[in-house]
Design brief:
The protein is α+β, with helices and mostly antiparallel strands and 472 residues long. The chain has helices at 7-62, 67-77, 109-116, 158-206, 221-269, 278-306, 319-329, 331-336, 357-373, 419-422, 431-441, and strands spanning 83-88, 94-98, 121-127, 130-138, 150-155, 315-318, 340-345, 352-355, 380-388, 391-398, 446-452, 456-464.
Protein backbone atom coordinates (compact mmCIF):
# COMPACT_ATOMS: atom_id res chain seq x y z
CA UNK A 1 0.00 0.00 0.00
CA UNK A 2 1.45 3.31 -1.07
CA UNK A 3 1.55 6.27 1.29
CA UNK A 4 -0.65 9.15 0.28
CA UNK A 5 1.47 11.85 -1.38
CA UNK A 6 0.17 14.80 0.62
CA UNK A 7 1.70 18.22 1.14
CA UNK A 8 2.22 17.30 4.80
CA UNK A 9 4.21 14.19 3.84
CA UNK A 10 6.32 16.16 1.38
CA UNK A 11 6.97 19.01 3.82
CA UNK A 12 7.73 16.70 6.74
CA UNK A 13 10.02 14.37 4.76
CA UNK A 14 11.85 17.31 3.17
CA UNK A 15 12.37 19.05 6.51
CA UNK A 16 13.50 15.87 8.26
CA UNK A 17 15.85 14.83 5.47
CA UNK A 18 17.37 18.32 5.25
CA UNK A 19 17.77 18.61 9.02
CA UNK A 20 19.33 15.14 9.43
CA UNK A 21 21.65 15.70 6.46
CA UNK A 22 22.73 19.10 7.83
CA UNK A 23 23.26 17.61 11.31
CA UNK A 24 25.29 14.67 9.97
CA UNK A 25 27.52 16.96 7.93
CA UNK A 26 27.97 19.28 10.89
CA UNK A 27 28.70 16.37 13.24
CA UNK A 28 31.17 14.78 10.83
CA UNK A 29 33.10 18.00 10.31
CA UNK A 30 32.99 18.87 14.00
CA UNK A 31 34.09 15.35 15.02
CA UNK A 32 37.03 15.40 12.60
CA UNK A 33 38.11 18.82 13.85
CA UNK A 34 37.63 17.73 17.45
CA UNK A 35 39.60 14.52 16.85
CA UNK A 36 42.46 16.45 15.26
CA UNK A 37 42.43 18.89 18.16
CA UNK A 38 42.41 16.02 20.65
CA UNK A 39 45.31 14.37 18.81
CA UNK A 40 47.25 17.63 18.89
CA UNK A 41 46.64 18.00 22.62
CA UNK A 42 47.91 14.47 23.21
CA UNK A 43 50.96 15.21 21.05
CA UNK A 44 51.71 18.28 23.14
CA UNK A 45 51.40 16.18 26.28
CA UNK A 46 53.69 13.50 24.85
CA UNK A 47 56.28 16.11 23.81
CA UNK A 48 56.23 17.46 27.35
CA UNK A 49 56.68 13.89 28.63
CA UNK A 50 59.59 13.42 26.22
CA UNK A 51 61.29 16.56 27.49
CA UNK A 52 60.72 15.47 31.07
CA UNK A 53 62.25 12.02 30.45
CA UNK A 54 65.20 13.56 28.63
CA UNK A 55 65.77 16.07 31.46
CA UNK A 56 65.53 13.32 34.10
CA UNK A 57 68.12 11.21 32.29
CA UNK A 58 70.41 14.20 31.85
CA UNK A 59 70.27 15.06 35.57
CA UNK A 60 70.68 11.44 36.58
CA UNK A 61 73.79 11.01 34.45
CA UNK A 62 75.29 14.28 35.66
CA UNK A 63 74.80 13.30 39.29
CA UNK A 64 76.19 9.85 38.57
CA UNK A 65 73.08 7.98 39.68
CA UNK A 66 73.11 4.24 39.20
CA UNK A 67 70.74 2.41 36.89
CA UNK A 68 68.32 1.40 39.63
CA UNK A 69 67.86 5.02 40.74
CA UNK A 70 67.27 6.16 37.16
CA UNK A 71 64.75 3.43 36.55
CA UNK A 72 62.96 4.20 39.81
CA UNK A 73 62.76 7.89 38.97
CA UNK A 74 61.39 7.23 35.47
CA UNK A 75 58.89 4.73 36.85
CA UNK A 76 57.53 7.22 39.38
CA UNK A 77 57.02 9.97 36.83
CA UNK A 78 55.05 7.78 34.39
CA UNK A 79 51.24 7.41 34.49
CA UNK A 80 51.07 3.68 33.80
CA UNK A 81 47.26 3.70 33.44
CA UNK A 82 47.42 5.84 30.33
CA UNK A 83 51.00 5.74 29.07
CA UNK A 84 53.84 3.32 28.60
CA UNK A 85 57.51 4.32 28.23
CA UNK A 86 60.05 2.27 26.28
CA UNK A 87 63.78 3.09 26.08
CA UNK A 88 66.03 1.57 23.42
CA UNK A 89 69.78 1.65 22.94
CA UNK A 90 71.66 2.44 19.75
CA UNK A 91 71.37 -1.15 18.51
CA UNK A 92 67.60 -1.09 18.83
CA UNK A 93 67.57 -3.33 21.90
CA UNK A 94 64.95 -2.63 24.58
CA UNK A 95 66.55 -1.33 27.78
CA UNK A 96 63.67 -0.28 30.05
CA UNK A 97 59.88 -0.63 30.06
CA UNK A 98 57.55 1.42 32.26
CA UNK A 99 53.99 0.19 31.57
CA UNK A 100 50.83 -0.91 33.30
CA UNK A 101 49.94 -3.24 30.42
CA UNK A 102 50.04 -6.99 31.07
CA UNK A 103 52.04 -7.61 27.92
CA UNK A 104 54.42 -4.95 26.59
CA UNK A 105 53.92 -3.63 23.09
CA UNK A 106 55.83 -5.04 20.18
CA UNK A 107 57.66 -2.11 18.66
CA UNK A 108 58.71 -2.67 15.05
CA UNK A 109 62.48 -2.44 14.54
CA UNK A 110 62.02 -0.28 11.41
CA UNK A 111 60.37 2.39 13.58
CA UNK A 112 63.35 2.38 15.97
CA UNK A 113 65.78 2.64 13.08
CA UNK A 114 63.93 5.66 11.72
CA UNK A 115 64.17 7.37 15.10
CA UNK A 116 67.92 6.52 15.33
CA UNK A 117 68.33 8.15 11.95
CA UNK A 118 66.76 11.32 13.35
CA UNK A 119 63.25 10.88 11.97
CA UNK A 120 60.56 10.93 14.68
CA UNK A 121 57.52 8.72 14.13
CA UNK A 122 53.95 9.52 15.26
CA UNK A 123 51.40 6.86 14.32
CA UNK A 124 48.54 4.66 15.48
CA UNK A 125 49.00 0.91 15.92
CA UNK A 126 46.39 -1.75 16.60
CA UNK A 127 47.08 -3.91 19.60
CA UNK A 128 44.46 -6.59 20.22
CA UNK A 129 41.62 -4.49 18.81
CA UNK A 130 42.70 -1.34 20.62
CA UNK A 131 44.17 1.70 18.89
CA UNK A 132 47.37 2.92 20.55
CA UNK A 133 49.17 6.09 19.62
CA UNK A 134 52.97 5.87 19.43
CA UNK A 135 55.43 8.71 19.60
CA UNK A 136 58.93 7.43 18.71
CA UNK A 137 61.71 10.01 18.91
CA UNK A 138 65.48 10.10 19.49
CA UNK A 139 66.96 11.32 22.77
CA UNK A 140 69.16 14.17 21.59
CA UNK A 141 70.02 15.76 24.97
CA UNK A 142 72.89 13.41 25.69
CA UNK A 143 74.00 11.68 22.56
CA UNK A 144 77.43 10.96 24.03
CA UNK A 145 76.51 10.14 27.62
CA UNK A 146 73.10 8.42 27.42
CA UNK A 147 72.95 4.73 26.92
CA UNK A 148 69.30 5.26 26.03
CA UNK A 149 69.07 6.51 22.48
CA UNK A 150 65.38 6.18 21.51
CA UNK A 151 62.30 7.02 23.57
CA UNK A 152 58.93 5.45 22.74
CA UNK A 153 55.85 6.74 24.52
CA UNK A 154 52.70 4.68 23.89
CA UNK A 155 49.40 6.40 24.65
CA UNK A 156 46.88 3.63 25.29
CA UNK A 157 44.27 5.98 26.80
CA UNK A 158 43.55 7.73 23.47
CA UNK A 159 41.05 5.23 22.11
CA UNK A 160 38.76 5.14 25.20
CA UNK A 161 38.64 8.96 25.23
CA UNK A 162 37.86 9.08 21.51
CA UNK A 163 35.16 6.42 21.88
CA UNK A 164 33.68 8.29 24.83
CA UNK A 165 33.50 11.50 22.80
CA UNK A 166 32.02 9.58 19.87
CA UNK A 167 29.37 8.09 22.16
CA UNK A 168 28.45 11.53 23.45
CA UNK A 169 28.14 12.76 19.87
CA UNK A 170 25.84 9.87 18.98
CA UNK A 171 23.69 10.45 22.06
CA UNK A 172 23.50 14.17 21.36
CA UNK A 173 22.65 13.39 17.72
CA UNK A 174 19.90 10.97 18.73
CA UNK A 175 18.34 13.45 21.15
CA UNK A 176 18.63 16.27 18.60
CA UNK A 177 17.07 14.12 15.86
CA UNK A 178 14.12 13.12 18.05
CA UNK A 179 13.48 16.67 19.25
CA UNK A 180 13.92 18.11 15.74
CA UNK A 181 11.62 15.47 14.22
CA UNK A 182 8.88 16.29 16.73
CA UNK A 183 9.29 20.00 16.08
CA UNK A 184 9.23 19.50 12.30
CA UNK A 185 6.16 17.27 12.60
CA UNK A 186 4.30 20.04 14.43
CA UNK A 187 5.59 22.69 12.00
CA UNK A 188 4.68 20.65 8.89
CA UNK A 189 1.25 19.92 10.30
CA UNK A 190 0.70 23.60 11.06
CA UNK A 191 1.78 24.66 7.56
CA UNK A 192 -0.24 22.00 5.75
CA UNK A 193 -3.36 22.24 7.92
CA UNK A 194 -4.72 25.38 6.14
CA UNK A 195 -4.10 23.71 2.78
CA UNK A 196 -6.03 20.61 3.85
CA UNK A 197 -8.84 22.85 5.04
CA UNK A 198 -8.82 24.70 1.70
CA UNK A 199 -8.94 21.38 -0.13
CA UNK A 200 -12.05 20.32 1.80
CA UNK A 201 -13.69 23.69 1.17
CA UNK A 202 -12.78 23.50 -2.54
CA UNK A 203 -14.42 20.06 -2.70
CA UNK A 204 -17.58 21.62 -1.29
CA UNK A 205 -17.38 24.30 -3.99
CA UNK A 206 -17.11 21.54 -6.58
CA UNK A 207 -20.36 20.08 -5.22
CA UNK A 208 -22.08 23.45 -5.58
CA UNK A 209 -22.03 24.38 -1.89
CA UNK A 210 -20.65 27.92 -1.84
CA UNK A 211 -21.61 28.68 1.77
CA UNK A 212 -18.40 27.18 3.14
CA UNK A 213 -15.64 29.66 3.94
CA UNK A 214 -11.90 29.24 4.46
CA UNK A 215 -10.77 30.39 7.88
CA UNK A 216 -7.88 32.80 7.22
CA UNK A 217 -5.38 33.02 10.09
CA UNK A 218 -2.36 34.66 8.45
CA UNK A 219 -1.38 37.39 6.02
CA UNK A 220 1.16 35.34 4.07
CA UNK A 221 0.72 33.57 0.72
CA UNK A 222 -1.44 30.86 2.31
CA UNK A 223 -3.68 33.50 3.86
CA UNK A 224 -3.92 35.27 0.52
CA UNK A 225 -4.88 31.98 -1.11
CA UNK A 226 -7.63 31.57 1.50
CA UNK A 227 -8.93 35.08 0.74
CA UNK A 228 -8.87 34.26 -2.97
CA UNK A 229 -10.87 31.07 -2.41
CA UNK A 230 -13.44 32.96 -0.34
CA UNK A 231 -13.70 35.62 -3.03
CA UNK A 232 -14.03 32.92 -5.67
CA UNK A 233 -16.84 31.30 -3.68
CA UNK A 234 -18.65 34.62 -3.50
CA UNK A 235 -18.29 35.13 -7.25
CA UNK A 236 -19.34 31.55 -8.00
CA UNK A 237 -22.37 31.85 -5.74
CA UNK A 238 -23.36 35.07 -7.50
CA UNK A 239 -22.77 33.49 -10.92
CA UNK A 240 -24.72 30.39 -9.94
CA UNK A 241 -27.65 32.53 -8.79
CA UNK A 242 -27.54 34.48 -12.05
CA UNK A 243 -27.32 31.24 -14.00
CA UNK A 244 -30.43 29.90 -12.29
CA UNK A 245 -32.27 33.15 -12.96
CA UNK A 246 -31.03 33.05 -16.54
CA UNK A 247 -32.32 29.51 -17.07
CA UNK A 248 -35.65 30.49 -15.55
CA UNK A 249 -35.88 33.63 -17.69
CA UNK A 250 -34.83 31.89 -20.90
CA UNK A 251 -37.26 29.09 -20.21
CA UNK A 252 -40.03 31.65 -19.71
CA UNK A 253 -39.01 33.68 -22.77
CA UNK A 254 -38.96 30.56 -24.93
CA UNK A 255 -42.04 28.91 -23.49
CA UNK A 256 -44.29 31.97 -23.83
CA UNK A 257 -43.92 32.47 -27.59
CA UNK A 258 -43.87 28.74 -28.23
CA UNK A 259 -47.08 28.35 -26.24
CA UNK A 260 -48.66 31.23 -28.17
CA UNK A 261 -47.56 29.85 -31.53
CA UNK A 262 -48.73 26.36 -30.62
CA UNK A 263 -52.10 27.71 -29.45
CA UNK A 264 -52.62 29.79 -32.58
CA UNK A 265 -51.74 26.89 -34.87
CA UNK A 266 -54.09 24.57 -32.96
CA UNK A 267 -56.87 27.10 -33.13
CA UNK A 268 -56.38 27.49 -36.88
CA UNK A 269 -56.37 23.76 -37.45
CA UNK A 270 -59.56 23.10 -35.50
CA UNK A 271 -61.31 26.14 -37.02
CA UNK A 272 -61.59 28.15 -33.79
CA UNK A 273 -60.00 31.13 -35.54
CA UNK A 274 -62.05 32.21 -38.56
CA UNK A 275 -60.26 32.40 -41.88
CA UNK A 276 -60.73 36.16 -42.05
CA UNK A 277 -58.73 36.59 -38.78
CA UNK A 278 -55.95 34.15 -39.61
CA UNK A 279 -53.74 36.83 -41.21
CA UNK A 280 -53.64 38.81 -37.95
CA UNK A 281 -52.73 35.73 -35.93
CA UNK A 282 -50.06 34.78 -38.46
CA UNK A 283 -48.46 38.19 -37.91
CA UNK A 284 -48.60 37.57 -34.17
CA UNK A 285 -46.86 34.22 -34.66
CA UNK A 286 -44.27 35.94 -36.84
CA UNK A 287 -43.56 38.43 -34.03
CA UNK A 288 -43.20 35.61 -31.52
CA UNK A 289 -40.89 33.73 -33.90
CA UNK A 290 -38.69 36.81 -34.33
CA UNK A 291 -38.58 37.14 -30.56
CA UNK A 292 -37.33 33.54 -30.30
CA UNK A 293 -34.77 34.12 -33.05
CA UNK A 294 -33.42 37.19 -31.23
CA UNK A 295 -33.15 35.21 -28.00
CA UNK A 296 -31.27 32.37 -29.71
CA UNK A 297 -29.00 34.84 -31.50
CA UNK A 298 -28.16 36.55 -28.21
CA UNK A 299 -27.27 33.20 -26.67
CA UNK A 300 -25.08 32.29 -29.62
CA UNK A 301 -23.42 35.72 -29.57
CA UNK A 302 -22.49 35.61 -25.90
CA UNK A 303 -21.16 32.07 -26.34
CA UNK A 304 -19.01 33.06 -29.33
CA UNK A 305 -17.79 36.27 -27.68
CA UNK A 306 -16.71 34.50 -24.49
CA UNK A 307 -15.01 31.79 -26.58
CA UNK A 308 -13.05 34.49 -28.43
CA UNK A 309 -14.61 33.54 -31.77
CA UNK A 310 -15.93 37.02 -32.65
CA UNK A 311 -13.76 39.24 -34.82
CA UNK A 312 -14.21 42.93 -35.58
CA UNK A 313 -13.94 44.25 -39.15
CA UNK A 314 -13.95 48.07 -38.91
CA UNK A 315 -14.77 50.27 -41.87
CA UNK A 316 -15.86 53.82 -42.54
CA UNK A 317 -19.64 54.11 -42.67
CA UNK A 318 -22.48 56.59 -42.08
CA UNK A 319 -23.57 56.22 -38.44
CA UNK A 320 -26.21 58.96 -38.82
CA UNK A 321 -27.99 56.90 -41.48
CA UNK A 322 -27.59 53.79 -39.32
CA UNK A 323 -29.41 55.42 -36.38
CA UNK A 324 -32.22 56.70 -38.64
CA UNK A 325 -32.64 53.20 -40.04
CA UNK A 326 -32.84 51.70 -36.54
CA UNK A 327 -35.50 54.23 -35.52
CA UNK A 328 -37.54 53.38 -38.63
CA UNK A 329 -37.42 49.63 -37.82
CA UNK A 330 -38.67 50.30 -34.27
CA UNK A 331 -41.51 52.62 -35.36
CA UNK A 332 -44.26 49.94 -34.97
CA UNK A 333 -43.18 49.32 -31.36
CA UNK A 334 -43.00 53.05 -30.68
CA UNK A 335 -46.58 53.48 -31.93
CA UNK A 336 -47.76 50.50 -29.93
CA UNK A 337 -46.27 51.87 -26.67
CA UNK A 338 -47.19 55.46 -27.54
CA UNK A 339 -43.59 56.60 -27.30
CA UNK A 340 -41.73 59.35 -29.05
CA UNK A 341 -38.10 59.11 -30.16
CA UNK A 342 -36.01 62.14 -30.92
CA UNK A 343 -32.67 62.35 -32.73
CA UNK A 344 -30.59 65.40 -31.79
CA UNK A 345 -27.51 66.42 -33.75
CA UNK A 346 -25.79 69.75 -34.27
CA UNK A 347 -23.77 68.59 -37.25
CA UNK A 348 -24.76 69.90 -40.68
CA UNK A 349 -23.62 66.75 -42.46
CA UNK A 350 -23.96 63.08 -41.69
CA UNK A 351 -21.31 61.68 -39.36
CA UNK A 352 -19.05 58.79 -40.35
CA UNK A 353 -17.30 56.43 -37.94
CA UNK A 354 -14.59 53.78 -38.26
CA UNK A 355 -16.09 50.62 -36.73
CA UNK A 356 -17.72 47.26 -37.50
CA UNK A 357 -21.08 48.30 -38.94
CA UNK A 358 -22.96 45.09 -38.14
CA UNK A 359 -21.70 44.90 -34.57
CA UNK A 360 -22.37 48.60 -33.84
CA UNK A 361 -25.84 48.09 -35.31
CA UNK A 362 -26.28 45.36 -32.72
CA UNK A 363 -25.01 47.65 -29.93
CA UNK A 364 -27.18 50.64 -30.80
CA UNK A 365 -30.21 48.47 -31.52
CA UNK A 366 -29.89 46.82 -28.12
CA UNK A 367 -29.52 50.13 -26.28
CA UNK A 368 -32.44 51.79 -28.10
CA UNK A 369 -34.60 48.70 -27.53
CA UNK A 370 -33.79 48.83 -23.82
CA UNK A 371 -34.67 52.52 -23.67
CA UNK A 372 -38.04 51.75 -25.29
CA UNK A 373 -38.73 48.79 -23.01
CA UNK A 374 -38.09 50.77 -19.84
CA UNK A 375 -39.76 54.01 -20.84
CA UNK A 376 -43.22 54.82 -19.47
CA UNK A 377 -46.18 55.07 -21.85
CA UNK A 378 -46.21 58.33 -23.81
CA UNK A 379 -42.59 58.87 -22.79
CA UNK A 380 -39.65 60.21 -24.74
CA UNK A 381 -36.42 58.52 -25.86
CA UNK A 382 -33.67 60.94 -26.88
CA UNK A 383 -30.71 60.00 -29.09
CA UNK A 384 -27.98 62.64 -29.21
CA UNK A 385 -25.25 62.42 -31.87
CA UNK A 386 -22.17 64.67 -31.76
CA UNK A 387 -18.44 64.80 -32.42
CA UNK A 388 -15.74 65.69 -29.90
CA UNK A 389 -12.17 65.97 -31.22
CA UNK A 390 -11.53 62.67 -33.03
CA UNK A 391 -14.47 60.81 -31.49
CA UNK A 392 -18.15 60.36 -32.22
CA UNK A 393 -20.38 60.40 -29.12
CA UNK A 394 -23.80 58.71 -29.20
CA UNK A 395 -26.06 59.15 -26.14
CA UNK A 396 -29.33 57.27 -25.65
CA UNK A 397 -31.54 58.64 -22.87
CA UNK A 398 -34.78 57.30 -21.43
CA UNK A 399 -37.05 58.60 -18.66
CA UNK A 400 -37.66 55.25 -17.03
CA UNK A 401 -37.29 54.16 -13.39
CA UNK A 402 -33.47 54.32 -13.49
CA UNK A 403 -30.84 52.00 -12.02
CA UNK A 404 -29.78 52.09 -8.35
CA UNK A 405 -26.22 53.40 -7.92
CA UNK A 406 -25.03 50.25 -6.16
CA UNK A 407 -26.04 48.11 -9.17
CA UNK A 408 -24.41 50.19 -11.92
CA UNK A 409 -21.14 48.23 -11.68
CA UNK A 410 -22.95 44.93 -12.29
CA UNK A 411 -25.15 45.74 -15.29
CA UNK A 412 -22.41 44.55 -17.70
CA UNK A 413 -22.24 41.11 -16.07
CA UNK A 414 -23.89 38.31 -17.99
CA UNK A 415 -27.27 37.19 -16.63
CA UNK A 416 -27.44 40.22 -14.30
CA UNK A 417 -30.80 41.98 -14.27
CA UNK A 418 -32.15 45.10 -12.63
CA UNK A 419 -35.79 44.34 -13.36
CA UNK A 420 -36.83 44.93 -9.79
CA UNK A 421 -35.40 48.42 -9.93
CA UNK A 422 -36.51 49.30 -13.45
CA UNK A 423 -39.58 47.27 -14.37
CA UNK A 424 -41.23 43.91 -14.13
CA UNK A 425 -40.35 42.95 -17.69
CA UNK A 426 -38.69 39.60 -18.28
CA UNK A 427 -35.25 39.48 -19.89
CA UNK A 428 -32.28 37.18 -20.09
CA UNK A 429 -29.76 39.66 -18.69
CA UNK A 430 -27.22 39.13 -21.49
CA UNK A 431 -27.99 42.06 -23.79
CA UNK A 432 -25.81 44.63 -22.03
CA UNK A 433 -23.06 42.03 -21.56
CA UNK A 434 -22.97 41.54 -25.34
CA UNK A 435 -22.95 45.32 -25.85
CA UNK A 436 -19.98 45.76 -23.48
CA UNK A 437 -17.99 42.96 -25.13
CA UNK A 438 -18.54 44.34 -28.62
CA UNK A 439 -17.53 47.88 -27.60
CA UNK A 440 -14.40 46.54 -25.85
CA UNK A 441 -13.45 44.57 -28.95
CA UNK A 442 -13.24 47.86 -30.85
CA UNK A 443 -10.23 48.96 -28.82
CA UNK A 444 -10.55 52.74 -28.86
CA UNK A 445 -14.31 52.67 -28.29
CA UNK A 446 -15.95 52.88 -24.87
CA UNK A 447 -19.37 52.83 -23.24
CA UNK A 448 -20.54 54.61 -20.09
CA UNK A 449 -23.79 54.80 -18.14
CA UNK A 450 -25.31 57.47 -15.90
CA UNK A 451 -28.54 56.74 -14.07
CA UNK A 452 -30.68 58.15 -11.29
CA UNK A 453 -33.58 56.29 -9.74
CA UNK A 454 -36.86 57.83 -10.82
CA UNK A 455 -35.30 60.06 -13.46
CA UNK A 456 -34.01 57.72 -16.13
CA UNK A 457 -30.80 56.39 -17.64
CA UNK A 458 -28.28 57.61 -20.22
CA UNK A 459 -26.00 55.22 -22.11
CA UNK A 460 -23.12 56.89 -23.97
CA UNK A 461 -21.09 55.13 -26.68
CA UNK A 462 -17.89 56.70 -27.96
CA UNK A 463 -16.53 55.59 -31.35
CA UNK A 464 -13.56 56.81 -33.45
CA UNK A 465 -14.24 59.14 -36.35
CA UNK A 466 -13.80 57.89 -39.88
CA UNK A 467 -10.31 57.44 -41.31
CA UNK A 468 -10.08 60.29 -43.83
CA UNK A 469 -7.36 58.64 -45.87
CA UNK A 470 -9.60 55.63 -46.50
CA UNK A 471 -12.73 57.53 -47.56
CA UNK A 472 -12.94 58.63 -51.18
Amino acid sequence: MKLKSSIFTKLFSTYVFSSIAAFLIFSAVFYILFQNDLKQNFLNTLHAQHEQVELTLELAYKEGQNKDAIISTLGLMNDKDHRSIYLFDETGELLHVFSGMVEPLHIEKEVIEKALAGNPVNEFVNEKGQRIFLMVSPLEGGQDTFEEKVLVIALHGYDPVAKSIKGMFMLAGLITTVVTTCFLFILSNKLSSPLRSMNLVAMEYAKGNFDKKVEVKSNDEIGQLGDTLNHMAKELASLDLMRKEFVANVSHDMRSPLTSINGFIGAMLDGTIPERDQSRYLHLMKDETERLIKLVNDLLDIARIEAGQVSIYPQNYNVSEQIRSLIAKLEPQLLKQELEIELETYEEKDIYVFADKDRIDQVLGNLIQNAINFSPSKGLVTIRLSTIAKDVVISIKDHGPGIPKEELNYIWDRFFKVDKARSQKVGTGIGLSIVKHIVDLHGGAKIEVISEVGKGTVFTVTLPLEHKKVRE
